[in-house]
Amino acid sequence: MRILKCYLANNSRGRFITAEEATCGKSDTWTCPSCGCVLVLHAAHTRETAWFEHDQGAVPVGVLMRCTHLDAEVKEQAQRRKLCRMVDELDAPVIVLSWYCVWCGSQYQGKKHCVVCGTGLYSTEASNRQMNGTRTPA
Asked: What does the alpha-carbon distance between residue 19 and residue 63 come to, in Å, rounded to a whole number?
């Protein structure tokens, strides 16, 4: 899981502190302002300023997935997988081609639009009428 670097944290007193300030002060416990996870401080290098890193081994994945420091690509992939699972669970649509108009009593095929009444508002699926035991006119 890719978690982005943090440059701001909460100290043990609940105050915001930057990574630069944390390197100058005494040792403390730092937590992420977004998810509350414990952070590890990394000192500044020649080309890089000081930064905090999430202690990923100490936190459940579900907590990290809701953190604002989670890489956007990881969030997108997780949301895409969730959407695919939801779509796979949907029933396949059934295309209805036989209709019965309860207003005028005509039975027709194709688009839901009774040519006799000029509307499809009073039309039901013809197979539903047969399953319910109602005779459809021939």
From this structure: 22
d(C-alpha 36, C-alpha 33), whole Å? 6
φ, ψ dihedrals at 5, nearest 5°: -65, 145
Helical residues (DSSP H) of 15-125, grouped into ranges? 19-24, 61-65, 72-89
CB atoms within 10 A of CB 15: 9
Domain boundaries, the chain: 8-89, 98-131
pLDDT tens by residue, 70-99: 888 888 888 899 999 998 888 888 788 899
What is the H or E stretch that residue 131 is in?
Answer: helix 126-131
- C-beta of residue 55 within 8 angstroms of C-beta of residue 36: no
As given in the structure block, the two tokens for residue 13 are: 């007193």
